[in-house]
Structures are given as structure tokens and as C-alpha cells.
Amino acid sequence: MTSVLQTTGLVCKLCLLLTAGNALWGCASTSSSVVQSSEAPEFNLEATPTASQAFRIAVEPRGQTAWTGDLPVVSPQGDRMAIADPEYPGDVLIRSIPNNRLDDPTILGRVPGPVQFGRSVDDLGFAVMDGDRVGRASWVGGTIEWFAEQNASDLDLGPENSIAFIQSGGLVVRTSKATLRLEDDRATWHGPRWQGADGTLFCWRVRDGALDLVRFRTDVEDSDALRRTALPIRIAESGGSAATIATTSTFRQFDATRPGPPRCVFWDPARQRVRLWEPPYPIFEFPAGVLAFVTDPNDPRFGMSVQSTVVRRVSLLTPSSGVPISGGLRLPRPIPNGEWLLFAPQDQHIFVECAILQPLTDDES
Predict the structure, then answer these.
(1) CA–CA separation, 9 and 120 (whole Å)
(2) What's the whole-model pTM score?
(3) Residue 65 forms beta bridges with which residues?
(4) Which stretches within the chain are classed as H helix?
(5) In this structure, are strands 163-167 and 152-157 parallel, antiparallel, or unpaired?
(6) How much of the chain, in percent, has pLDDT values that exceed 70?
(7) Dmax over Cα atoms in the chain, in whole Å?
(8) What are residue 247's phi and psi, to 5 degrees?
(9) Domain ranges of the chain
(10) What are the angstrom distances between the C-alpha of 340 and each of 41, 128, 298, 304, 325?
(11) b/e map of 103-124 (b: 16 or more CB within 10 Å)?
(12) Residues linked to residue 121 through DSSP beta bridges, in sequence order
């Protein structure tokens, strides 16, 4: 089994490529079932279960593919993925995932390089960058629509065709109403992240060496109004840098089947913890050892937690407990119908499993 230190290092590498109390979530506790798995686990499946509705979990192997270290991104429908071409470095392949399987994926398109794909997708395509330009590559054929062609980076695709990206250190937000820009001689912006269906945007700001996480409401018509919606929280008094920004990014709902709540999950470099911010509530802190958390798009009270080398389904009311799903390093991605793809990276290949959550009937529970 991979050591915790090795796992943390790999997770940090992948992050570079790539996201309180009872009154906060208001979830009533009920029973939980013993987990069922289709393959031999590396841990005790009868661990203390999370407080949740009763359900069973089956984990099925779904194939493998060669990879170069860039974690694939998956379409919101769960039927396509973008992955770096292992044979032609710099190119990106668009592959089908028939029935969520990688046994014999069909190549649906190729994005000629050199180009990198981001950690953001929507129904039309996925974010791509080439070092100067940012755009969206179509799931059908890979044609790129470029949004900015000079000094642009960190593109994130938002609801209703909105986008946000960084250009020359400033934040650019394009919505159906306007193009908004925030520029400051004393500050640089990094890593914009849309969350929720209402146009909520989170973004990192470095000002005078301090690191802040800022939330915006983007349903405005000019840049001054956008600035007035800013709600910042101080993450670190000093040490803010591009490298620090990269380590704050953790797994996010970039491929949720529908928009999740307007919350931001991030790695706090000062506290060395994964934390969750959902204004107006206080910041929620996960227990030590949690490396990432991805909200369940079907039920925002729950999610998949990567803890050391175990993926668990946890409740935000009881994050220290949880139902183990899969051992070894697995990186969860929600897909439709209450299922999750679990990516297991190895040296030259990436393996895919499917975690199927099935609520129990009254008779079964």
C-alpha cells in the first residue's frame, strides 16, 4: 500500500494539474448498511459507518488506459473523457466511455498540441490552455473556441456559458450581462472557481504577500459592482505565491452531473487541512488526514473523502466517520445516476472503477 507521504505527494502533483454544526446542514441521522464490494478490499469494510440514509455500495472494475500523469477530465454526462495522448505528447485525446467502461474506448477527437486541459468542464466541452491563450475544446471533435489570446491562464467554465480566467494578473469574468475586470497594482488573482448555479465565483488573491480567498456574486453589470460583492477571508498572513496557490487547490465538482451548492473546498496551507467555506456559515474544517473532498451532486450533505489511501463516503455532520469504498489511492468523479468513477493512477496506466450507491428499501434496511 502506498504510504501516506507518497500519496500526499501524488495528490499534490495532481492538484497542480487540476478543490459548523447540525444547524449548518440540517441532516437527520438514520442507519447505514454494511458496504458490499465486488472485489477484495485492502481494509475492514465493517468500519464505523457514517450517519446517513441506508445504502449499499458496489465497486466494479471498468478497465484501464495508458496515461502520462495528467488526470483525465470527464464530461458531465459521464460518457466522454479528455486525456493526454501517451503517444503524442502535447496532444489531447477525447475518448468515449461506453457504459462507463474503458475496455475499448473509441477516440472521438484529438486536440493538437501543445495544449493542456484544465480541471473545468461543461456540457459543451472542457477548458484548454496553451501558455498564452485560454479556450474551450468541444466534446465533439475537439474544436477550440478561444476566449482570450494574450497573457491568459486559469480558465474556469461557469453556469449558463459564463467563464472566468486570469489575464496579466487580473480577474476577468464574462457573463451574459457583461465582461467584468478586476485589476489592482498591489494584488494578483489566481484560480477562479465557479460553484453553484447562481453565478457564485470564488477566487484566490495575493496582496502584500497575504493570501485571501474571495467570494463574488456575478449577477452584476459592471466591474465596480462586482468589486462591491467581494467577501474575502484571510487564509495566510504571509507566503502567498503562485506555488502556494497551486497547493490550495483540491478536488472539485468540475464534472458534477448538476451544479452543487455555492461552496469552496480547498487546502489551507497555514492549517495543513482541507476546509470548506459556504457563506454565510463559518469555515468547516475536515479532520487531519483528509486529502480531498468532493461533494455528492445528488445530496450536498454528503460527499467522497480521500483520506490517506482510502476513499470514503462521509456526512458533513460526521466527517471523522464514513463508509469505506475503495482502498489504495482513488480519485473520485461523480457521474449521473448516483454513480462515481474512481481513478486509480499507477506508473504507466490509470485504472478505472465504478462505485455504485444503491439506497436500500425499507425491507432491506
Answers:
(1) 22
(2) 0.82
(3) 350
(4) 4-17, 22-25, 223-228, 242-248
(5) antiparallel
(6) 77
(7) 64
(8) -75, -15
(9) 1-66+255-365
(10) 17, 24, 11, 9, 11
(11) eebeebbebeeebbbbbbbbee
(12) 126
Q: What SS3 state is found at 13?
A: helix
Q: How confident is the model at residue 107 (pLDDT cuts 50, 70, 90)?
A: confident
- The burial of 334, by beta-carbon neighbours within 10 Å (0-12 exposed, 13-18 middle, 19 or more buried), is given as buried
Task: Retrieve residue 228's grid coordinates.
Answer: 462591491
Band of pLDDT at residue 204, cut at 50, 70 and 90: very high
pLDDT of residue 17: 32
Residue in the structure block whose three cell numbers are 441521522: 29
**Tally of residues, the chain:** 365
Alpha carbons 360 and 365: distance in angstroms, whole number: 6
Give one DSSP letter per residue of 251-263, joined into a string: ---TT-SS---S-
Residue in the block written with cell 495528467: 70
Q: What is the pLDDT of residue 110?
A: 92
Neighbour order of strands in the sheet with 349-359? 55-66, 349-359, 339-345, 331-335
State the average pLDDT over residues 330-335.
87
Element (H, E) at 299: none
Whether the CB-CB separation of 108 and 94 falls below 8 Å is answered with yes
Distance in angstroms (rounded) separating the CA atoms of residues 206 and 212:
6
pLDDT at 228 over 90: yes
